Amino acid sequence: MAKLKPIKINHVSKYFGKQQVLDDIELTIEPETIYGLLGRNGAGKSTLFNIITDRIPLSDGEVTIAGQPVTDNDAVLNRIYLMSEANLYPSRMRVKDIFQLTAQLYQGMDMALAQTLAEQFELNMSTRFNKLSTGSRSIMKLIIALAVDVDYVFLDEPTLGLDANHRRLFYDALLDSYAKRPRSFIISTHLIEEASNLIERVWVLQNQHIIIDESTESVLNKGFAVTGPTADVEAYTAGLNIIGHEALGNLMVHYIYGELKGDRPIPDTVSISHIDLQRLFIYLTNQEVSTDEN
Amino acid sequence: MRIKAAFSYQLKNYFKSFGWVYLWSIAVVVILPFAISLLLGRINIYDINDYLPQFLPSLILSFYLFVFGGISYDGFKLFIQNGLGRKTYFLSKLSALTVILLVGEAINVLYGLFYHHFINPKNNPIMTFSVLYGHYFNSAAANTVSVLIITMLFTACIMVTGMVIGSSLGLFNRRVQRISIIGMPVVLFVLLAVLVMLNDQTSLKLTWIGDVLLFIVGMKQPVSTGHFVAYAPMISGTIYIMVMLFISYRLTLRFRVPR
Amino acid sequence: MQFDFNSTEPLYLQVAEQIEEAIFTNSFEEGTQVPSTTEVSKQFHINPATVLKGMNILVSDGFLEKRRGLGMFVVTGAHAKIREKRQTEFYEDYVVNLVKEAKKLSLPETTILEMIKRGYNNG
Asked: Taking every annotated instance into account, which residue ranges of this chain make up the domain HTH gntR-type (chain C) (predicted)?
């Protein structure tokens, strides 16, 4: 196969009836990159994944790879795996048979890895799919996601229903697998903390739009917490992009997303620090909501 | 397209389920009555003729193709999860079921021969449609081939009907599906009853419906069974199959998850 | 007042600092191999690209070297180089802050010097 082409999401919109879920989404998924799709519950993360993987039709725009639309295009679809909450496997099929059929319908699967992971996760491969608990179903799909031979792996809330040990195990396995065979992972989650260090590029989906599409590093570089006496903080942050604030008596924290004014003197009483992705996300997605409600 | 992998996957599963349906049918239709008469101590009056109908394999095949042609959405779900689109799903399913149809018909002919020679020689011909079309041509070989083609087209019509019903149902959620599965036969029955009633009343002439039907099957005046026009069902059957396949294909392209 | 992003500085810098510290404390000895990008990545759930970026800083600083097909090794003399580097940075990193804080507290120069002497002798 020639060098991999990126997946392009061009002006994609989606309506369910009259309700708009996605509006003019523009994204590029490069090969061998780990993406994080962040958005609050109901923001449309799953819908976006379902559109990219051709599970549902889009209302407007197109998803292409090398100029070819993905719709019913096996050459592309067969290089993509989507792990989601939807249970599309035959309910009475045994786990090992599901592994087998995956290997057959896709272009192969690392059975040794699947076996090892099943042991690590204590997943009984002889159990029928409908007898698995919700957590075990997630585990089974995650094992397939890591072992199947594809170039783009979409993980929709991968660790939902997994306990802390299994979550850790999963990220171990993911990074191990990524190191051995780099490919793209697109992870949607609202448990940002556990994933933030492995995401190379962040997308934030909010109110039908992608409001952030940047490298994690530059996103983190733009997030600040300005702490100090209310008057001093307000004087310093005037005109900056304030995405949230917290007050404790006269002590004020302003959360900023964007550039600080380099020429503006920082009062001695005020301290400035960076904030983590989780916090940044919370304030960024709150802001949009509150401006809408006003 | 990954049609080859999809096709071999489908074919394997269809053969498996076809085998099971066969076994179960034989168990229910043949072995069960035998076991019952054995239990009741009436084995002396058990006659395999009563329990091994000549049409059993044809019935099984038609039933199988109708039902499995109808199961659409579950297959699509599995395929889309495994990176295969609707087109591949439809084409691999159609080709795999066609193989089943050919194999099934071959079994039917062999069974017909077997039945004709060993179980009930005096009765019917090897292929049922011989009764209608078996003497249209002057050559016996041509007649055999044409009846064979008509038989296969007829079974294929049943199959594509199942496919259209299944792919229509695939667009709806389970509730609507249940309602239509129960409701449609009722509606059809009522419709039929109304038609029959109307036909009885001489004021309305609905005989054209009958005429069309007769034309489709190739019955010509004066009626003489065995001499129906063999081309008529071939052409009408082919047209029906094409139309149904087209509809089913277009409906399949509209499948989505979740519904 | 100065920016102090120590706790939340970019991840790749933290990675570089952690490895540098490990070399300085002889946890990673000179001439030996340091853990691979993958190992570090897996251990701390950090994207391998980030880890590599951090390691590359140490390569350009001359503390680590790439050996083709083998991995990253601690350069001979890296320990001394790190000490040298930290010595030059000592003024910026510690003295400037110390003086600034002392001035805020109105501590005269002599007192600070005295304190340093005391700390030095006790240490």
From this structure: 9-77
